[in-house]
Amino acid sequence: MTAAPAKVGQELTPAMVAYLVVLGLAGVGVMIGTYLGDWGFWGWFGGGFLVVAGFGALLGNVFKIGWQPAVGPCPRCGTSLHYLTKKQHLRCPSCETLLEVQGQSLAAVPQNAVADTAEYPAPYVASITFPPTCALCGQPPAQAETVRWDKHRKKADYVVATVIEVTKIVLQVPVCAAHVGQGAVALDYGDHPSTQHDGVCVKFRSVWALEGYRRHNAAVMPPIRNEPQMPHAPSA
Length: 236
Ligand SMILES: [Zn+2]
Ligand SMILES: [Zn+2]
Description:
Elements: E1 7-8, H1 14-37, H2 41-63, E2 69-73, E3 80-84, E4 89-91, E5 98-102, E6 105-108, E7 120-123, E8 143-157, E9 162-175, E10 185-189, E11 200-204, H3 207-216
Antiparallel strand pairs: 1-2, 2-3, 4-5, 5-6, 7-11, 8-9, 10-11
Bound molecules: zinc ion (2 copies).
The site of one zinc ion has 8 residues, from loops.
């Protein structure tokens, strides 16, 4: 397949460059003010933060360091996909292949891959169930393992009140005798587009078990999406 190579980094418009320069210069200004006015630690901290945010983003974009938004072809079908150049999984909306970011381009995850920890994600929705096989190896299950999640996430901070989102999930995960307590499945926040949705995801150690879970819950799986990874990221 002759697909175009990955295009890494976003094209900065003159306005964005100007904005980042102003941000960095504001940071320098705050640091000078801190020095002259003896504003103390928070002055240095705030100034330093602005300098890093402004000039750091510029340098990162020029030298392609840090997480860069990228656009590259699906290695299976060639569809142009958005991703970040960091360790991340995503799924091609066209051929539904599970992909991972390797270096700066995309590679298909082998169907027989088994990771040391649960890292291959699929969306969690309230009505999901597990297929009646071990969620790690596919053998007949010996028991159901309880995976609990009780997460408090700060959603918004107002002056008088903080909104905390509480998510409680209990999964009954079938496992064979050999895989009890082996962390076959874990719950985590979705890392869009790793999971193609913004909510909670179910992570598997085994890609085979992950795909079985998706087939088993095909009726309730949200559609696969692939979108730019940052505001103003290049549109394919
Ligand atoms: Zn594809
Ligand atoms: Zn097993």
